[in-house]
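testing teh design pipeline on a random one, pls ignore if ur not involved
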């Protein structure tokens, strides 16, 4: 992949969140070392067991951090949207990758060599603060991911998985609008595309997101993080009890339009 990489443009450098924390000379050295490459959908940027050579970040697109269980089943740790830099723990320990990083769609990925990463760690207070904050926030994200794994309600799984992609510290390039398809969100949440569609409508009915063409806009991030489906009330004699999917069912009766486009 490195053979087809190129130097970053000025606009790409402007979107690198940690460059502003460096002294002018440090930023110049890092920018001169940085490379940018295009990863096609399905292509691996990092693979389990491979030696670490670069510290990577997402300029555009969407990546997935995952591994396989002892039974050979895929385990998704997190999605990696624009603005996210990842693998600092692996770089610090100089150990082989313990996870795969795969592009869910065609993506632009930037990276600096481990040698320059180490150089910045040794001399830059601003860079060290950035890395420490990354590690702290990532730990919190993985604890939340464990909670998601134990959730049986699909709406809650989709809500928490979606909220994790709107992390202002880890993914400053996202803002309040994330370009993502139902299929991609299904990969991250561990549910089917059809079930993602239903969950997104439920979340929109709860006024925590707004479905837009090609993506999802968050209007209440705290509400999205805390979202829980309405609890069904006890059945009354002669009447069926309402369920948490009433609003979704009503919305589906109104039309068959997809919440967001399917992945191609």
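output:
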């Amino acid at each position: 992949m490195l053979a087809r990489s190129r130097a970053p443009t000025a606009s790409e450098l402007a979107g690198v969140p940690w460059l502003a924390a460096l002294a002018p000379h440090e930023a110049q050295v890092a920018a001169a070392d940085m490379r940018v490459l295009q990863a096609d959908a399905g292509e691996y940027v990092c693979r389990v067991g491979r030696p670490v050579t670069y510290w990577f970040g997402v300029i555009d697109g969407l990546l997935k951090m995952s591994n396989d269980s002892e039974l050979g089943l895929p385990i998704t740790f997190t999605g990696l949207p624009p603005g996210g830099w990842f693998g600092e723990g692996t770089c610090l320990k100089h150990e082989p990758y313990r996870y795969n990083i795969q592009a869910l769609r065609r993506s632009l990925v930037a990276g600096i060599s481990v040698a320059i990463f180490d150089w910045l760690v040794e001399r830059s207070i601003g860079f060290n603060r950035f890395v420490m904050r990354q590690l702290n926030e990532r730990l919190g994200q993985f604890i939340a991911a464990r909670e998601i794994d134990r959730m049986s309600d699909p709406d809650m799984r989709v809500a928490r998985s979606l909220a994790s992609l709107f992390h202002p510290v880890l993914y400053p390039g996202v803002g309040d609008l994330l370009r993502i398809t139902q299929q991609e969100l299904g990969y991250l949440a561990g549910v089917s595309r059809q079930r993602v569609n239903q969950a997104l409508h439920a979340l929109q009915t709860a006024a925590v997101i707004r479905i837009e063409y090609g993506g999802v806009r968050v209007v209440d991030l705290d509400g999205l993080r805390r979202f829980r489906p309405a609890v069904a009330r006890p059945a009354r004699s002669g009447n069926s009890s309402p369920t948490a999917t009433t609003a979704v069912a009503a919305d589906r009766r109104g039309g068959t339009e997809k919440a967001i486009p399917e992945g191609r």
